[in-house]
């Protein structure tokens, strides 16, 4: 073999680079590449959608003087005398001071036994502070940015409620649910289908309670301009990435294709790789389309549109049938000019992002999170464009299948006894009249 046999052309290097990238993403270091010319080839990987990109589940930001990695790391004892056992649920939330959730006694009768009724000193006044932590997703994803904006609004209105708020990163919806089952979550962002499945007992989340719905998580196709794809029905015979085995995006793809009577064998090439490689696949002409069910606008999509691609909705009569058959799906519309060169509104479908709380979480904290976000949703739309899809009434009316947490129920006025917990937080300031007697109702 001569030396010249070792050289490869630029085109061959591009192919090799894509193949190596595919292999790396699917196993963590190396994974099976689905060869671009092998129709119906599959790679295997356990993975998550783009929201689940971060592998580090420790908070990126914590409250002062709290080391979350070592704070209150005692082994949980499930015995009834355990002060971390509240109404039968273990509760040791990350990034929350021990004094905010640990019971003084094991008396189960009253919220007053919670340590968060302690009085602390601040600026020479007798004041109390409270703490909220919202588990979200990767720091580059929409969930984390949404949680961060909620906390920003809580900070701007701090004097009304004295609730400190911090967003916590995670691997996404799946890890948020697991962490709640472990008693480590106070508040978390999931999807309306998770809310529905938990309520139906299909995928229970013990102690999970609804707070409010947030932004739309709309499904969109990103397609090459030369692909000829104008709708879901046009995907037959095309090259697409449907995501790794076991990922949420793959399950959504299979459900959508099935509704349109498209099998994987009907596609030219099927890739099973992580969503991180969609941009490379489109730009290097290895795939014709990929789909994402996320909040919009999304950097993952905008970055791809610069190399001859456009967005296409997943709407249509067959999609409408699927929405009618599933309570957790909703018809949605992407406003015009959300993305580059998108001159018209686009019809599609998707979920609602769903803020849930753990039942033992402080109702005072949950109440004020609910109230501040709902009252200031128009301001939040200006702060972060993902909130533009939020309709104020939908925050209560859509996607909340689980019973409401007592704090949210009080704000939404779900029943006559929804605010029965309030007297525990209306103690008079010993230095003056009823300083903490906040006005809870609108």
UniProtKB/TrEMBL annotation:
Q: Which Pfam families match?
A: NMT1_3 (PF16868)
InterPro entries found in the cross-reference section:
TRAP_TAXI
Cross-referenced PANTHER family: SLL1037 PROTEIN
Instruction: Report what the protein is called.
Output: TAXI family TRAP transporter solute-binding subunit
Organism expressing this protein natively: Thalassospira xiamenensis M-5 = DSM 17429
């Amino acid at each position: 073999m001569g030396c010249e046999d070792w050289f490869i052309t630029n085109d061959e290097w591009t192919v090799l680079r894509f193949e190596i990238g595919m292999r790396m993403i699917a196993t963590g270091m190396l994974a099976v590449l689905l060869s671009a010319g092998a129709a119906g080839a599959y790679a295997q990987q356990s993975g998550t959608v783009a929201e689940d990109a971060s592998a580090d589940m420790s908070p990126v930001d914590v409250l002062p003087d709290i080391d979350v990695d070592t704070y209150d790391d005692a082994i949980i004892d499930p015995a009834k005398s355990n002060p971390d056992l509240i109404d039968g649920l273990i509760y040791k939330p990350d990034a929350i001071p021990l004094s905010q959730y640990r019971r003084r006694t094991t008396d189960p009768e009253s919220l007053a036994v919670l340590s968060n009724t302690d009085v602390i000193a601040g600026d020479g006044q007798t004041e109390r502070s409270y703490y909220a932590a919202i588990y979200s997703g990767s720091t580059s994803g929409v969930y984390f940015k949404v949680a961060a904006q909620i906390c920003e609004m809580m900070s701007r209105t701090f004097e009304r409620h004295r609730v400190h708020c911090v967003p916590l990163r995670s691997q996404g919806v799946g890890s948020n649910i697991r962490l709640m089952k472990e008693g480590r979550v106070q508040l978390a962002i999931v999807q309306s289908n998770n809310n529905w499945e938990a309520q139906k007992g299909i995928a229970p989340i013990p102690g999970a309670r609804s707070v409010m719905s947030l932004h739309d998580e709309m499904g969109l196709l990103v397609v090459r301009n030369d692909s000829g794809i104008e709708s879901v029905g046009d995907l037959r015979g095309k090259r697409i990435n449907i995501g790794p085995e076991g990922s949420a995006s793959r399950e959504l793809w299979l459900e959508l294709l099935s509704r349109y009577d498209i099998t994987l064998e009907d596609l030219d090439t099927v890739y099973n790789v992580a969503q991180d490689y969609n941009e490379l696949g489109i730009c290097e002409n290895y795939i014709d389309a990929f789909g994402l069910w996320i909040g919009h606008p999304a950097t993952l999509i905008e970055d791809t549109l610069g190399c001859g691609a456009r967005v296409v909705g997943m709407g249509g009569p067959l999609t409408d049938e699927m929405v009618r058959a599933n309570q957790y799906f909703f018809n949605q519309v992407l406003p015009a000019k959300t993305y580059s060169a998108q001159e018209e509104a686009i019809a599609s479908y998707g979920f609602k992002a769903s803020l849930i709380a753990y039942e033992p979480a402080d109702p005072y904290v949950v109440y004020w999170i609910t109230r501040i976000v709902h009252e200031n949703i128009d301001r939040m739309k200006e702060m972060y464009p993902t909130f533009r899809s939020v309709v104020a009434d939908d925050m209560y009316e859509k996607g909340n299948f689980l019973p409401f947490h007592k704090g949210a129920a009080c704000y939404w006025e779900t029943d006559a006894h929804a605010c029965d917990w309030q007297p525990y937080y209306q103690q008079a300031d010993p230095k003056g009249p009823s300083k903490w007697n906040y006005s809870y109702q609108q």
